[in-house]
Amino acid sequence: MPANSSPTGQPGADWATLRLRANLLARIRAFFAQRDVLEVETPALSAAAIPDQNLSSFAVHYTGPGLRYGQTLYLHTSPEFPMKRLLAAGSGCIYQIARVFRDGEAGHRHNPEFTLLEWYRVGFDHHRLMDETVDLVTELLTGRVSLREPERLTYHEIFQRRLGLDPHRAMVPELAAGAKTQNLSIPPGMPVDDPDPWLDLLLTHCIEPELGQGRLTFVYDYPISQAALARVRPGDPPVGERFELYLNGVELANGFHELGDAREQRCRFEAENTARQAAGLPTMPVDEKLLAALETGLPECAGVALGFDRLVMLAAGKTALAEAMAFSFERA
Amino acid sequence: MATYSTNEFKGGLKIMLDGDPYVIVDNEFVKPGKGQAFNRARVRNLKTGRVIERTFKSGDTVEAADVVDVDLQYLYNDGEYWHFMDQQSYEQLTADATAVGDVAKWLKEEAICQVTLWNGVPLSVSAPIFVIMTIIETDPGLRGDTSGGGGKPATLETGAVVRVPLFVQSGEVIKVDTRTGEYVSRVKE
């Protein structure tokens, strides 16, 4: 795809947008400086990688020195693991503006490399972190995007309101019937026993485009199967203390009330690697350094990763990511 | 069986769905924050022209449609089928009324047409954008009128009827735009 689609070598973003990009970066740094959150940098290359089967890490080869046969290293898909190691080592609140890499993701809203703003707040839960996310995003978008009062909806509410479905309890036949009612084209090969891809289908096709119209909309408390790195709050049903932020139908950020239990984290990694194997995907080396850090103790904290390029796109009134970055994948 | 991965999806790609050949009109990659990625494609049925939406799990494969566009020379109509010839191989191909459709009225013998073949069989026929044809019948118009306003119907040698300016007469040769079915100009023989 990068082959010669832009033989002129011209950037895909205009100068006003590139200046806005630089301005937003400076204001993000000022925001966190004012709140005493420390800027950090962590490695983009690691011997370990996230085993989440819906994330694909670029594998690169390190030839040495220090290793006779070299070693496979992975480009990070987010700086989460080393940042948690800093937290466990006593860093206090930290943030990072990192270039991250995800294989297999390209489109209007996706680029295989992009900029994540990721920050962690010690002592916060996911609701307090949503408050701060509103503060930051509102400050950055004021005068550019008109925003009504922010809203918070549970994952259950968005499915109940739009589709009349209970996402925590509905099984595949009910979700499939819901998709049919919405006249969705059902992709071939959808699983008969795993509701998550069905929830993702309904979410991306029916719900997401309508979320956050003219306001910051948070979706929170996810099914435990989609908790990822969030803690699970027991209850009926139990939920993952995770949130997503949407603005004008664009998913902007994902946050967690962070899981600090090393044993639970190891179990999730192993389950994800098992799922990768079942799907015919290569398994990923588990990050033992992260697990060791969790063993020593992760402070109570919440963390969130915000897609900076999408924020620039919305702030600049653009509709494609390629218009918000100097050289998107097609031009790289 | 040739296949395409969703990673190869782009406008113009020909794929098989439910036994029919389709062409991809456009394709969007959608992925929730965490979770399954999809390719959401709009596809046009090459037999019916209908555009529908189809979603695929990203990374899945779809059967490729053996659909190619070739330039063939139109030979004649035998009352049921339209006969074409490949000018390189001299191979003759026949198209039925479904494939030819409304284009039939623009087909003049020896004209070069673009024919879409599916598994080697004509699926659809496109008329040349401009055709030159003789008027076989039209009402005599006023000699002095050169404005072209108003106009009158004229029947062409293939049976097609187009509106022509009043000054154009039977027996004259005209150029027609087949995309709009409109008269373009007179052609000097």
What's a quick, concise take on this entry?
The complex is a heterodimer of chains A (332) and B (189). Chain A is built from 9 helices and 12 strands.
3D architecture notes:
The complex is a heterodimer of chains A (332) and B (189). Chain A is an alpha+beta fold and 332 residues long. Chain A is 33% helix and 22% strand. Chain A is built from nine helices and twelve strands. In chain A, strands 1, 5, 6, 7, 8, 9, 10, 11 and 12 form a nine-stranded mixed beta sheet that branches. Chain A has a three-stranded antiparallel beta sheet with strand order 2-4-3, with no helix packed on it. The radius of gyration of chain A is 20 Å and the shape is globular. Chain B is mainly β and 189 residues long. Chain B has three domains: 61 residues, SH3 type barrels (Roll), CATH 2.30.30; 60 residues, Nucleic acid-binding proteins (OB fold (Dihydrolipoamide Acetyltransferase, E2P), Beta Barrel); 58 residues, Nucleic acid-binding proteins (OB fold (Dihydrolipoamide Acetyltransferase, E2P)), CATH 2.40.50. Chain B has a five-stranded antiparallel beta sheet with strand order 9-8-7-10-11. A five-stranded antiparallel beta sheet of chain B has the order 14-13-12-15-16, with no helix packed on it. A four-stranded antiparallel beta sheet of chain B has the order 2-3-4-5, with no helix packed on it. In chain B, β7 and β8 form a beta hairpin. At the A-B interface, α6 of A face β3 and β5 of B.
Please write the string of helix (H) and strand (E) elements of chain B. Answer: EEEEEEEEEHEEEEEEE
DSSP, total strands of chain A: 12
Helix proportion of chain B: under 10%
Highest CATH level, the class of chain A: Alpha Beta
Strand order of the largest sheet of chain B: 9-8-7-10-11
Oligomeric organization of the protein chains: heterodimer
Taking the alpha carbons of the first and last residues of chain A, their distance comes to: 10 Å
**How many strands appear in the DSSP assignment of chain B?**
16
